[in-house]
Amino acid sequence: MSDQHEAPLASALHEEESAPPIPENSAGFLPIETNWFDRLFISVVIWIALSLFWFRFLEPAGLSIWISNAIALVVAFIIIRKG
Amino acid sequence: MQSKRLGWILLAPTLVILFFFGVLPFIYVVYVSFHQWNPFAVNPEMVFNGADNFRQIVFDPAFLKSVGVTVMFVIFAVLSELILGYVLAQAFMRDFPGKAIFRTIHTLPLIMAPIIVGSVWKLMTTPSIGIIPHFLDEWFGITMNIGTSAPAAFATVVIMDIWHWTPLVTLTLIAALVSLPPDPFEQAQIDGANKRQIFWHITLPMIAPAVVATVFIRLMDALRTVDEVWMLTGGGPGSATRFVGVHIFKEVFPKTNYGYGSTISVIVLYLTIVACWLLYVTMLAPRSKKD
What we know:
The structure holds 2 protein chains of 2 kinds. By secondary structure, chain A is an all-alpha fold. Helices cover 70% and strands 0% of the residues of chain A. Chain A contains 3 helices and no strands. Chain A has helices at 2-18, 36-58, 65-82. The longest helix of chain A has 23 residues, at 36-58. Chain A is elongated. The model of chain A is unreliable at 1-6 (pLDDT under 50). Chain B is mostly helical. Chain B has a domain at 67-244 and 278-283: MetI-like (MetI-like fold, Orthogonal Bundle). In chain B, strands 1-2 form a two-stranded antiparallel ribbon. In chain B, helix 3 packs across helix 7 (150-178), helix 3 packs across helix 9 (195-223) and helix 7 crosses helix 9 (195-223). The longest helix of chain B has 32 residues, at 61-92.
C-alpha cells in the first residue's frame, strides 16, 4: 500500500535529480536578478552609450575615445564580477 | 539524452534559417557600418574608416531630429493602441448583437499590406478628393492639408498606425483575458473590491506578460515604420514625419550612402533593444533579494 503511494513521488524525485541544474543568479548591486550573460549585455549597452556620449561631448574637447573604452572595460569588469 | 538530441534536430531548421537570414545580415550591417561605401560612386570599394560614421551620427541634426520625431510617434501610437486595444478586448469579452461581424470587420486592417494602407490613407486625406478633408471642412470648417501642415501630417500618420495595428493588440489581449482563471475575480468581488481595484490589482498584474509582449512587438514595428509613412507623406512636410526608418531609406537609396545608412541602422537597433530591455526590467524582471 505504502509502496504504491511512494512510487510516483520517487519517480518525481528521480526526474528532479536528473534535470539540468538551474544556473545560479546573482544578487549583486544591480536591482534585478541577473546571470553572467545579462551582466555582459548590460556592460555592452553601457559601453556603446558611453562611446556615443564621448563622441558627442568629450572627444571635441581633446579626450581620446580610448579613455572611454578603458572606462567601459573597467565598468564591465565590475558589473560582471559584482553586479 | 535521446530527447535532448531530438530537441536539437527539431530546432535545427529554424536555427539554420535564423543564422542565414538574421545573424549573418546583422554581422554584415555592423561590418559595413565601419566603412565608407557607395557602390555606385567612381570608387565603389569599401573603405574602412574606423568609427567615423559613429562620430558623424552624433552630430547629424537630421538624424537626431528623426529620432525625436520617431520617439514621439512611438509614444502616441503605441500608448493609444494599448488603451484602445484593451477597451476593445474587454468589449469583445461580452456578448452583444453583431459581435462576430464586428470582430471580423475590426480585424480587417491587419490583413492589409502597409503600402496599401498608406495609399488608401493618401487618397482619403488628399485635399481636393479625400473624404476626411471634405467632411472636416463641411462639418467643422477645418481646412486639412497634410502636404503643408506638419501637425496635421504627424497626427494623420499616428491615427493611420492606430487604425492599422490596434486589432493586433486587441487579439493578443483577448487571448490573455480569456486565459485568466475566474477564481481571483470572484473572490475579489466577494471581498467587495470595485472595478478599478480589480483592474489594478488582479487583471493588470495577471495580463502583464501579454501586455509587455504586445508592447515589444508594437515598439519594434513602430520604430522601423517606413512604407506606410513613405506612401502617405514621404517624410514631409519638411521633416515632420521623417522617422528613422524613412531617414535610413533616404540615406541608403537616393543618396546610395550604404556605410552611413548601416551605421544609422545599427544605432536604431541599439535603441530598440535598449527600449525593450528597459521595458522588460521595469515590468517583468525578478527583483534581486539582498536581505
